[in-house]
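Page 37, continued from 36.
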């Protein structure tokens, strides 16, 4: 299979969906010319030769801020921003943003668990006072 420079740059930036990253990784292991192209792309970057698209991808300018991802999970974003974040995470499949969303979900769950534990402790500590009256 032929990979474009854009595909290979995405591979170097770890910005492709996991399946595509795996396909390129497999191809790199068996194709010396692909290794050569990756080496050239990497050398160009080191020499300071950057494309606008490369800069855009490396700095992840299309990625929503973590606060926006949190707002997306909480349902507090406006409709346009919600639509964009959903597209970016679910359709584009940005692995960095998917990882951030998963981390935020875990934090929400941990916070909910901590609140429940705290409520239970408060109730248990005050149960004796409620029964006595």
């Amino acid at each position: 299979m032929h990979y474009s420079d854009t595909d290979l740059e995405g591979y170097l930036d770890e910005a492709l969906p996991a399946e595509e990253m795996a396909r390129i990784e497999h191809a790199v292991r068996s194709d010396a010319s692909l290794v050569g192209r990756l080496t050239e792309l990497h050398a160009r970057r080191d020499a300071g030769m950057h494309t606008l698209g490369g800069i855009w991808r490396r700095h992840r300018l299309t990625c929503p801020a973590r606060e926006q991802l949190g707002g997306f999970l909480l349902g507090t974003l406006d409709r346009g921003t919600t639509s964009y974040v959903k597209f970016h995470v679910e359709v584009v499949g940005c692995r960095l943003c998917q990882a951030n969303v998963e981390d935020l979900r875990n934090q929400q769950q941990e916070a909910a668990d901590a609140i429940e534990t705290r409520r239970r402790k408060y109730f248990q500590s005050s149960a004796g006072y409620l029964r006595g009256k």
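The chain has a mean pLDDT of 86. Flag for discussion at group meeting. The first helix runs from residue 5 to 12.
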